[in-house]
Amino acid sequence: MPSIHISSTSRALYRVFIAPHVRSPFRGTAHTLPNPAPLPWISIRTIAFKKDTARHALSDHFTLDRAINEDVINLVDADNNFRPNIPMHLVRWNRTTHHLMLLQARPVDKYGHPYPDKLATCKIVTKIELRRRLEKALEAERKRAKGNTSAGPSQKTLELNWAIGANDLKHRLEKMKAFLKQGRKVEVMLGPKRRGREATREECENVLKSIQSVVVECKGATEIKQRREGAVGGVMTIVFQGAKTEENNAGEG
């Protein structure tokens, strides 16, 4: 008889004398699983993220590339050189890194009709620079929406040409002086005259001296050095920060 064979007599004796004293690992019937131990209570915090759903594409804030519906433009190239009367189909730029941005729309008359002898001015700008401008504008908008007035008065922009007449220059600089005394930031955009003669180097230098003299008259006003762009006689941007002081307020009265 093989060693693994158990006789029917042995099985009967096992059921009678041994099996009743062996504890089953399960309580209840053979088909009933034991009740599981209760799991410890786990508190799960739900973190809610406030998603900014606003779409901030550059094309939503600037007129770019094919959206510029002009046949001929004045162009400020990537090196800040002013090039008048350039047919749009001849304008070339690296579309991977740059955009063609509408800098100044074509002037219109009181009826909204464009002047036939006036042109829009466009500029080739890097996408990084445009993104920086947009983020700055959005940040200012968020501050205004929160009622945060710590950013100070809004920025003003003045456009001048190098060959500007004396009376016109005086009028523009008076406005600039008023803005600086109010503590505003003033961006001065200088460029060649769209139509007519080109200013001499001496005339350009005199315009810059006149601007600087106004800044000196406004106590606390300074030039933001890192913001100066362009070249004398071409397209140039200079930014000044005004300061509202008691002396300036007295001058306004």
Automatic annotation (TrEMBL):
Keywords: Initiation factor, Protein biosynthesis. This is Translation initiation factor 3 C-terminal domain-containing protein. Belongs to the IF-3 family. The lineage of its organism: Eukaryota, Fungi, Dikarya, Ascomycota, Pezizomycotina. One of its GO terms (biological process) is ribosome disassembly. GO terms for cellular component: mitochondrion. PANTHER family: TRANSLATION INITIATION FACTOR IF-3, TRANSLATION INITIATION FACTOR IF-3, MITOCHONDRIAL. InterPro entries: T_IF-3_C_sf, Translation_initiation_fac_3. One of its GO terms (molecular function) is translation initiation factor activity.
